[in-house]
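P.,

For your records, the input lines for the assembly:
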Amino acid sequence: MSGPLLQVDSLRVTYGAPGRRVVEAVRGVSFEVLRGRCLGVVGESGSGKSTLARAVLGLEERVDGRIEFDGREVRRMGRAELRAFRRRAQMVFQDPLGSLNPRLKAGAALAEVRRVHGLAKTRAEAEAQAADWLATVGLDAAYAHRFPHELSGGQRQRVNLARALCVGAEFLIADEPVSALDVSVQAQILNLLKSLQETRGITWLLIGHDLAVMRQMADEVLVMKEGRIVERGPVDEVLARPAHSYTKELLSAAPSVKRALDRRAAGALAIGCRQNGPS
Amino acid sequence: MTASGLGVGYAAGGGRLEVAGEVDLCLRAGRTTALVGESGCGKSITAAALGGLLPRGMSRDRGEIRWAGGGERGPGKGLAYVFQDPGECLDPVFTIGSQIREALPKEDRGRARERMTDLLRTVGFDEPERVLASYPHQLSGGMQQRAMLAMALAGRPRVLVADEPTTALDVTVQAKILRLLADLQRKENLAVLLITHNLAVVAEIADEIHVMYAGRIVESGPVEMLRAPRHPYVQGLLKALPRLDGAERLEGIEGSVPPLGRRPPGCRFHPRCARARAVCAEREPPWTACGPGHRVACWACGDGGWA
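Structure tokens returned:
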């Protein structure tokens, strides 16, 4: 399979009540995501990256521009088609606990979405299938009977992934999926995302602020600032030869153990930071 | 300030549950000491214990804290804190000025205005007057954290405890706040205790580092030890970090940090350690010196170990 799964053209998203100041969160953004690839979107808070993700899934109201999924324009889809789109395109959020219902056990959480999408007729049938989906994210069947508070952060994020996959998602938007996790667990989850891309052909839109994570995961990357794309390209190229001053700033501020130690050993200024004065 | 054999306990079901134990720290003027670990390892509790800020139900019931010059002190008396989320620490209904004024010691109240503008200049504000009159929501996250730092410095502390001071900030802002911390430590001759989970932040500004796991320090040394750590956990943490210069598959550490009350006997890391042998599950590993100021608590990589 090749060709773009998602094509976005001149996307604009605005906020603000009528008669009040209008804030343009996304200001004319165009990009595409090829099937089975991972596109990273990097930027700092307020750059519009999460709004962009929500707009793609139809979760924003004041949207302008064209969003095409598998050749069909999302904003012109009829009910049935939209339903299928919502099954095929799923989202995984940053806070793994906040995005799970505290009163549903992991198995029931999966069963619920399968029933909602008409993929299982009865609760019993849905719960029986839940174990298989938990296995695809590396959790054994016993976890189906645990509540979110009985799981660790990494396990919760696995359940969130399983919940997205179990309705047949082909396209996943992950908004800062590992930033709330401990370092030793982050790596496990990143590896899982990567292997889902490889084994199940999942197409990813990965939202984040960490360039090192992008280096690990993404094929291509967009750098966003103030609602606009300021740089784009294959991730290793962008990181090796950043063209825009903002990308350079992000890169020089990106935390790196080895670089920091080298810089200090050389007696240079401790922290790479291109501007002085208050932030 | 030195803390030796520090232990924090939590009274539970008639017994004592240890949150952190046998913590030795030595904080020196003009030096930054980092206490690093993942969530639930006891680093923030240890920091809170130093200033008597432990939550209800917990107490520092082991070890002692000594100050050069004698005595024990708390917040406002030689020890000041800066926390992770400046937006939550600042009171939204008072101006920055009135909040800093509250933190000024008696002897500075007479010339409060002057002292406050000095403090704000120290933390990098060019227009201190404007900041004094601002409410917290009028400042960005980075500016709020600077204001918190000004407030912490108001009491002329000798020790500044910074608990995840940059975790809530964007990376470019983080870099600036870290540089400010490093500057302050030098100019004000502060002893800084940096609490963080981020090894890169440690590498940027710390002089000494202590890595904690499940309530115990497992490896301590000068910051350069991060180039070649000895403890399997610390090695694992470094390998788990995504790198800017390589896309090899990451090596996570299997499993996760055990919750309080389910910490294993012996070396607490042994269930997740690839090099563990029988002894690791039975007895706590002793300290082994492995370089100037560098020591590790591990059976496998200590004296007579097998790795």
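Two observations worth noting. Residues 245-279 of chain A form one domain. The mean pLDDT of chain A is 89.

Regards
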